[in-house]
Design a protein that fits this description.
Largest sheet: 2 strands, antiparallel
CATH topology of one domain: Cytochrome Bc1 Complex, Chain C
Strand content: 5-15%
Shape: globular
Bound molecules: protoporphyrin IX containing FE
Cofactor: heme
CATH architecture of one domain: Up-down Bundle
Helix content: 55-70%
Oligomer: single chain
Membrane topology: Multi-pass membrane protein
Keywords: Cell membrane, Electron transport, Heme, Iron, Membrane, Metal-binding, Respiratory chain, Translocase, Transmembrane, Transmembrane helix, Transport
Number of helices: 17
Protein name: Cytochrome bc1 complex cytochrome b subunit
InterPro entries: Cyt_b/b6_N, Cytb/b6-like_sf, Di-haem_cyt_TM
């Protein structure tokens, strides 16, 4: 009895303290009053979690990154290794490479945190990519969210740069090869290429400046920009309200979902721990970037089968696909084979991404505000373009591993390169046509469902020998949803010109 009374009193005290804290915060911050944060409605759908996965892997990146700065030395000063990884004992290397070996073998828990940082980067970029695709295919970039789309594309660009800068820091043979490619790309820029390269590397490649410079970018400038832009991005999601899928009671003028506190905060907090848990598990069991196996960087050495992290793979692929085209003008060589795939192509990719919402608005003339998500099938051209772009990207990514694929399947690397070149031109066209057709077919099937009901798969044979299938009428919710996407049932359909004539 006594313990029950004590527990009740402790519960009352805790409730009282929670109320006082809430009142305190409420009196000072715009939390629960009209339109306040606590009651913000957050629509519920799995695809809205993709942005959150990006957010939470970014948090893991920041936490593990801060830890790594305690042990990493961003210096290219030459040292002789005497750490506990004996195969490299007595080898000359940069202090940056040595400190990364130390983190991996001599700092307690170091390898786990290094791996978590690297895995979080891989997942961060993947999550950004699929988040971008969900925004694209559901038309969530349309008015009034164009600015958030532009911020998103910038975040994507910064995340790529941040990943590349971090990947280059350990100064191992693989990352040094990546930097050598980056220098080649700089040199391919007409007129100013040599100056750009000298400026970036502080002189001849590789020099002694690049690692400390990349370090400043990687731990200060780029994360600062990312953090600031993610904050603005999320403020805009709150301010403009989240898009939602059509359904009863969900219109272009409201947002229906879980309140921010406690439901959304609890489920989103759960997602954070899941992301953290999965990244920790992956880092515990799946090796990534074993720099000790590559050795320290030397400008005159390159290992076979060198592969960048997956998000740079499309650039590697585009470089491998372009034939050795060069033109010499007044004694200066124009390296089309590097300029086109590594400067022009990414430039075009990002220009298209930045321009897309405005280009679509210009072509369709749609200037309305949209808060309901589109279904990809209802916009066959947009969906077709998206799938065509994914197929282009897929070809480039696969081409980035042409040597590995050729080796694994014992096929000619030259023949495979030609297959990729042709696929790069043909596959997007095919993908566009097939996707547009599939979208139209799916929409027609929806129309049929609305007018004739759902197929039951049950056949009836009539006495006259004919067959008919039994259809079940759709439930009210599904009829409502299909009507929201502009489909009309038999009774509501405008009569066609032929029907009117009859
Ligand atoms: C650092 C990278 C990014 C983070 C952490 C992030 C985070 C988020 C989060 C948490 C949301 C709300 C939930 C959701 O709709 O998924 C969101 C919404 C949104 N994001 Fe991102 N995002 C990032 C990159 C991008 C990119 C690359 C784009 C597109 C180019 C983009 C465009 C948008 C738009 C337009 C919305 C509003 C969606 C709506 O209201 O339905 N974001 N973002």
């Amino acid at each position: 009895m006594l313990w029950r009374r004590r527990r009740a009193r402790a519960g009352a005290r805790a409730r009282h303290a929670a109320e006082r804290t809430t009142d305190y915060i409420d009196g000072r911050l715009p939390l629960s009053e009209g339109g306040g944060l606590l009651r913000k409605a957050f629509p519920d759908h799995w695809s809205f979690l993709l942005g959150e996965i990006a957010l939470y892997s970014f948090v893991v990146l920041l936490l593990t990154g801060v830890w790594l700065t305690l042990f990493f030395h961003p210096s290219m000063t030459e040292v002789v290794y005497h750490g506990s990884y004996t195969p490299l004992a007595g080898v000359r290397m940069s202090a940056a490479y040595e400190s990364t070996l130390d983190i991996s073998f001599d700092v307690r828990g170091g390898l786990l945190i290094r791996q978590m940082h690297h895995w979080a980067a891989l997942v961060f970029l993947a999550a950004i990519g699929v988040h971008l695709l969900r925004i694209f295919f559901t038309g969530a970039f349309r008015r009034p969210r164009e600015v958030n789309w532009l911020i998103g594309v910038t975040l994507f660009l910064l995340a790529l740069a941040e990943g590349f800068a971090g990947y280059s820091l350990p100064d191992d043979l693989l990352s040094g090869t990546g930097l050598r490619i980056a220098q080649g790309i700089m040199l391919s820029i007409p007129v100013v290429g040599t100056y750009v390269s000298f400026f970036a590397f502080g002189g001849e490649f590789p020099g002694e400046e690049i690692i400390p410079r990349l370090y400043a970018l990687h731990i200060l400038l780029l994360p600062g920009l990312l953090l600031a832009l993610v904050t603005v991005h999320l403020i805009l999601v709150f301010y403009l309200k989240h898009t939602q899928w059509a359904g009863r009671g969900r219109t272009e003028r409201n947002a229906v979902g879980k309140p921010m506190v406690p439901q959304f905060a609890a489920s989103s907090g759960g997602l954070f721990f899941m992301v953290f848990g999965v990244l920790t598990l992956l880092s515990g069991v799946a090796q990534t970037n074993p720099i000790w196996a590559y050795g320290p960087y030397r400008a005159d050495v390159v290992s076979t089968g060198s592969q960048p992290d997956w998000y740079v793979g499309f650039l590697e692929g585009s470089l491998r696909l372009v034939p050795p085209w060069e033109t010499t003008v007044a004694g200066h060589t124009l390296m089309w084979n590097v300029l086109l795939p590594a400067v022009v192509l990414p430039g075009v990719l990002f220009a298209v991404l930045y321009a897309y919402p405005f280009a679509e608005r210009w072509v369709t003339g749609d200037r309305e505000e949209h808060h309901l998500c589109d279904r990809p099938r209802d916009h066959p051209v947009r969906t077709g373009l998206g799938v065509a772009a994914i197929s282009c990207y897929g070809v480039l990514l696969a081409a980035g591993g042409n040597d590995i694929i050729a080796y694994a399947f014992s096929i000619s690397v030259n023949a495979l390169t030609w297959v990729f070149r042709i696929s790069f031109l043909v596959l997007p066209l095919l993908a566009f046509m097939v996707t547009r057709r599939v979208c139209r077919a799916l929409r027609e099937a929806d129309q049929e469902r609305l007018t004739e009901g759902e197929e039951t798969g049950e056949l009836r044979q009539t006495l006259a020998g004919g067959y008919e299938e039994r259809h079940e009428p759709l439930d009210e919710e599904r009829r409502y949803v299909l009507r929201s996407y502009g489909l009309r049932g038999e009774e509501e359909r405008e009569p066609s010109a032929e029907e009117l004539e009859r």
